[in-house]
Amino acid sequence: MKLTKLVLEHDDWSSVVPSNVQARTIKSIPIENKDLIIALVLVKAPNARIIKEALYSIKRNRRVKSIEVLDNVITRSYAMALLSILSRYTDSITETAVNLSAIFSERVHDNKEYWTFLINGKSQRLPLFKI
Fold first, then answer.
1. Structure pTM?
2. Which of 17, 66, 84, 117 has a beta carbon 3.0–4.6 Å from 21's, enabling a disulfide?
3. In sequence order, what DSSP letters do the residues of 53-110 get, joined into one string?
């Protein structure tokens, strides 16, 4: 087993959401025989206005096909939304992780993606990404 951590800043929706937005991918599910993946993402921000700005930014990304708000919570100190994001799968970091049979997690903060991969097998390494 090999644990690898990676911080990315690239042309994805994570780079255009307001910097005070935090997001964590709960589950990524590739759709068989299609170039699509559904990601369940929990987004947290200081207020509902910033969540709306983040949703607008995510929707405008070229890889994102659709976005749906499944649930939300708004309090005096923060706002959270559970999103279902349908996006392209080919040439994604998720595709690489799935092909390696890796256990992985992703979180977004300050316009960067923080990935953690647990890869089974001594000889396998994380390949360079085409991002």
1. 0.84
2. 17
3. HHHHHHHTSTTEEEEEEEEEEE-SS-EEEEEEEEEE-TT-HHHHHHHTT-EEEEEEET
The pLDDT value recorded for residue 131 is 42
- HSE value, Cβ hemisphere, 13 Å, CA-based, for 120: 5
- In this structure, which amino acid lies at residue 64? V
Which among 107, 105, 106, 109 is positioned nearest to 45, based on CA atoms? 109
Report the C-alpha gap between 83 and 67 in whole angstroms.
7
Q: What digits encode the pLDDT tens for the residues 39-98?
A: 999 999 999 999 999 999 999 999 999 999 999 999 999 999 999 999 998 888 888 888
User: Which two structure tokens, joined as six digits, stand for 21?
Assistant: 């937005």
Sequence letter at residue 125: R
Tokens found for residue 41: 């993402």
Contact yes or no for 124/101 (Cβ under 8 A): no
Cβ contacts of 10 within 8 Å, gap of 6 or more: 113, 131
Both tokens assigned to 56: 């607008």
